């Protein structure tokens, strides 16, 4: 089952997920650096952020797909969105922000653009793994 909700608004009727790529980034605090005596790295781990690059594709109609794109653009300046998504047996749910998105044109006919994919890299607001 595929679905996506952003801020509780479901786009699953017209949008499907073609891929989810998981990534993680560790954030260190101010007390990180190399020991000048022996070169050993001193870590100040604040936590690990598990994010996802999600590629959406046009599941049924151009109108719903355009609605997702418009919603993402409109809320790109928000502090965060509540992301919920599932593809197959895995699901994700967390507060996230994104700083960019892209979409690919499939074809244009009679003055109408038909889009193929939207790609967005969602970054968690808070670390999911902390010490």
Protein described:
The protein has 1 helix and 10 strands. The chain starts with a strand and ends in a 7-residue tail after the last strand. It is mainly beta. It has one helix spanning 62-74, and strands spanning 2-6, 9-10, 15-28, 33-34, 41-42, 45-58, 81-87, 90-97, 101-109, 112-124.
What are the salient characteristics of this protein?
131 residues; mainly beta; eight-stranded antiparallel beta sheet; two-stranded antiparallel sheet; 1 helix; 10 strands; 10% helix; elongated
What's this entry about, in short?
The protein has 1 helix and 10 strands, in the order E-E-E-E-E-E-H-E-E-E-E. By secondary structure, it is mainly beta.
Helical proportion?
A: under 10%
Name the assembly state: single chain
Overall, the morphology is: elongated
Poorly predicted ranges (pLDDT <50, ≥5 residues)? none
Give the secondary structure arrangement, pairings included:
Layout: E1 2-6, E2 9-10, E3 15-28, E4 33-34, E5 41-42, E6 45-58, H1 62-74, E7 81-87, E8 90-97, E9 101-109, E10 112-124
Antiparallel strand pairs: 1-2, 1-7, 3-6, 4-5, 6-10, 7-8, 8-10, 9-10
């Amino acid at each position: 089952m595929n679905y996506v909700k952003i801020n509780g608004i479901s786009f699953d009727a017209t949008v499907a997920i073609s891929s989810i790529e998981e990534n993680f980034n560790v954030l260190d605090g101010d007390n990180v650096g190399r020991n000048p005596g022996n070169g050993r790295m001193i870590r100040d781990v604040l936590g690990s952020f598990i994010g996802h690059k999600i590629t959406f594709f046009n599941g049924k109609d151009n109108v719903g797909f355009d609605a997702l794109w418009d919603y993402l653009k409109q809320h790109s300046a928000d502090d965060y969105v509540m992301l919920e998504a599932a593809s197959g047996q895995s699901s994700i749910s967390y507060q996230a922000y994104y700083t960019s998105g892209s979409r690919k044109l499939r074809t244009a006919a009679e003055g109408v653009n038909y889009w193929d994919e939207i790609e967005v890299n969602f970054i968690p607001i808070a670390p999911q793994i902390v010490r």
